[in-house]
Design goal:
Elements (H helix, E strand, L loop, with lengths): L8 E5 L4 H12 L3 E6 L2 H11 L5 E5 L5 H15 L4 E4 L14 H28 L3 E6 L12 H21 L4 E8 L2 E2 L1 H8 L4 H10 L7 E2 H12 L10 E4 L7
Parallel strand pairs: 1-2, 1-4, 2-3, 4-5, 5-6, 6-9, 7-8
Length: 254
């Protein structure tokens, strides 16, 4: 399993923290070369140092909400590693507001990062995957991309778009041997969740309440989602495309 991804190159947006960083860690351990993408240089360099795989991992600073930067991100990955085999779209932002409090700027930001970024990274990565005669794209959606969540209309709209975009792209690319799948995590212990809890008057009470709605009665770990992404990127999943896979402790089964 250590050499499972030997000679394969992965591009991971949102790779400097949370699910993206956990995925980078796992794929590197299993032999891949990895480009992690983030918007903040300091955070990205810290993540790169933590990965501790000199020569096998690089950090690319970029804003996925800007199509021109999405193109540059893909080009930099190809320039450094010479090819591209796996794309993981993990960059994302969260918003919890009643619809009448959502500003146009709020809406634009969440759409720009969550779906526009995913769309344009795929747009510029697909020609490279076609050149390689195959590859894997894994988009990170959310349980909110399957079911509606209270006070999350903008977030649900963005993640629902990721979910259906995944299905559409999988059909478009199937004959090119490019598999496109989507994972839909529930609440996961990440910096995004910590930020959400910190905004509460009683973070501990909110965490207990969040945990209580899961049939498995716990919050997930980023490493657990990374394992699923690793599987979908691997040859073991060679017949799997167009799948929307909840990784949510049973939440969407309710």
């Amino acid at each position: 399993m250590i050499d499972e991804f030997k000679d394969r190159v992965a591009l991971i947006t949102g790779g400097s923290s949370g699910i993206g960083l956990a995925t980078a860690t796992l794929l590197l351990h299993r032999g891949a070369s990895v480009a992690i993408v983030g918007s903040t240089a300091e955070k990205g360099q810290a993540a790169l140092a933590a990965l501790n795989h000199a020569g096998q991992a690089i950090f690319i600073q970029g804003d996925v909400s800007q199509p021109a930067e999405c193109k540059q991100i893909v080009q930099q990955t190809i320039s450094h590693f010479g090819k591209l085999d796996i794309v993981v779209n993990s960059a994302g932002v969260y918003l919890e507001k009643a619809i009448d409090d959502v500003s146009e700027e709020d809406y634009q930001t969440i759409m720009d990062v969550n779906i526009k970024g995913t769309f344009f990274i795929c747009k510029y990565a697909v020609p490279e995957l076609k050149k390689a005669n195959g590859g894997a794209i894994i988009n990170v959606s959310s349980d909110a991309g399957i079911n509606g969540n209270v006070l999350c209309t903008a977030y649900c709209a963005s993640k629902g778009a990721v979910t259906t975009f995944t299905k559409a792209l999988s059909l478009e690319l199937a004959l090119h041997h490019i598999r496109v799948n989507c994972v839909c995590p529930g609440d996961i212990e990440t910096p995004m969740l910590k930020k959400q809890l910190a905004a509460s008057a009683n973070p501990e009470a909110l965490l207990r309440e969040m945990t209580s709605i899961y049939p498995m009665c716990r919050i997930g770990q980023a490493s657990e989602v990374a394992e699923v992404i690793s599987f979908l990127a691997s040859k073991k999943a060679s017949l799997i495309t167009g799948v929307v896979l909840p990784v949510d402790g049973g939440l969407t089964a309710c």
